[in-house]
Design a protein that fits this description.
6 strands, about 10% strand, rod-shaped
């Protein structure tokens, strides 16, 4: 979904509604991006206070995006196979408020924030609120390998997959402690990447959350939905409902008659049974009345019972 510049700016207001099923996505790379893209300064960068030098298409800087939209932009960035090494870090159950305090802006993941602010990093892309289906680490890995193969690289890219321990579902000291422990592991991973390259900065890091825990976690979102966004979502939702109904009507019109309609329902069956019983009783009653026989002599005054009594 594309939002206007005004709508995007409204997302930067601190605190508000809760998205228990959303998660952040952070991508940073030491490679320059495609120069045909329009460079955009994004002051809404989630992990750094300085404007990012990320080059991404216009309309893709919203901090509230669906999974499909965020993945679409990520795939666009990775399509050119910008580096020879890729580090995929999956942190289940993490939210944007875990990485940065919404009020103070203090970063809770020191190693991750330091890696993003590293002078070797030339491009950054992050989304604080990714809402929708989980991001597959295997899917990202497969896409990177396929993209680099299409670019005709002589050597296949090195893709590292790291799945961190899930954060506790309840907010508190245990959750903060586990996040700090995992951040140390993130620091070790990134230090190893830089060391393995022999000082040659040629890597791309993607930090995301997948999968979500079945237990809901309540937290305060860093970005608030403005009235414009709510109206846009309602309008688009209404369009989807109308399209679904039209599609349903179109499919029903070509269906057989006995598939579209139910002619023999339980109510109709009970009605038929009751009608049969009533008609049977009516038939018996009419048959009994019709079987009665009375002689015509009973109505004759001369030969009837009254005349016989008089003669006696």
């Amino acid at each position: 979904m594309r939002f206007s510049t005004t709508t995007t700016a409204s997302l930067l207001v601190s605190t508000a509604a809760a998205f228990s099923d959303s998660s952040p996505l952070v991508l940073f790379s030491t490679s320059k991006y495609d120069p045909t893209w329009t460079p955009l300064a994004s002051p809404s960068c989630m992990l750094t206070s300085s404007p990012t030098r990320l080059s991404i298409p216009a309309g893709e800087t919203s901090q509230l995006q669906s999974t499909s939209r965020a993945l679409h932009t990520t795939h666009d960035i990775l399509a050119s196979c910008p580096t020879s090494r890729y580090v995929l870090i999956s942190q289940p159950n993490v939210h944007a408020s875990d990485l940065r305090n919404p009020q103070s802006g203090l970063c809770h993941s020191a190693n991750l924030c330091a890696a993003v602010d590293n002078k070797a990093v030339r491009g950054r892309y992050d989304v604080a609120e990714v809402v929708g289906d989980d991001i597959s680490i295997d899917g990202l890995s497969s896409y990177i390998k396929a993209a680099c193969a299409e670019q005709g690289r002589k050597e296949p890219p090195v893709v590292e997959e790291h799945l961190l321990e899930a954060l506790p579902t309840q907010k508190g000291e245990a959750r903060a402690t586990k996040l700090a422990e995992n951040d140390v592991e993130v620091g070790d991973i990134l230090s190893g990447v830089r060391a393995s390259n022999g000082g040659d900065d040629d890597y791309t890091v993607i930090y995301f959350s997948s999968p979500h825990s079945s237990s809901a976690v309540y937290y305060e979102s860093e970005y608030v939905e403005s009235a414009a966004i709510q109206m846009e979502l309602k309008r688009r939702t209404g369009d989807v409902v109308v399209l679904d109904r039209r599609a349903g009507n179109a499919s029903d019109s070509s269906a057989p008659l006995f598939v579209k309609y139910q002619f023999f329902t339980p109510g109709i069956f009970m009605g038929i049974v009751a009608l049969i019983i009533i008609l049977s009783l009516l038939y018996v009653g009419l048959s009994a009345v019709a079987s009665l026989e009375v002689s015509y002599g009973a109505f004759d005054k001369e030969n009837g019972p009254a005349a016989q009594k008089k003669n006696i």
